[in-house]
Write a structure and sequence with these properties.
The chain is mostly beta strands and 110 residues long. The protein is built from no helices and 11 strands. The protein is elongated.
């Protein structure tokens, strides 16, 4: 890899290649550019599997819904989820309930 990358820790543009690692002279951080994990929103389900927009998930426990006469039952399949950067990090539409925001710790990839 001959392209110079900015430091992932401090964003300095003065990093340099020191075979096989990249080194930042400002903060001293060293990293392998081939193993650099992609940045962005990372959302994991109850089992630790990484979720993505459009995935189908299954609810792992009954979830009470404020103002609804009954909870979302465990085993309910939710299709076409959308990930958002907030406390309830899954936006979805559930049949019989409508649009919802759910925490990823209550679902598993289905």
């Amino acid at each position: 890899m001959s392209e110079i990358m900015p430091c992932p820790k401090c964003k300095s543009t003065y990093s340099y290649l020191s075979d096989p690692l990249m080194t930042c002279p400002e903060c001293g951080h060293e990293w392998n550019p081939d193993e650099l994990e992609e940045t962005g929103l990372v959302v994991k389900d109850a089992n630790g599997n990484r979720l993505a927009d459009g995935d189908t998930v299954i609810v792992v426990k009954n979830l009470p819904v404020k103002g609804a006469p009954h909870p979302i039952k465990a085993g309910t399949k939710i299709k076409n989820i959308r990930l958002v950067d907030s406390d309830h990090n899954i936006d979805c539409r559930i049949d019989g309930f409508g649009s919802m925001a759910i925490k990823s710790e209550f679902v598993k990839k289905g």
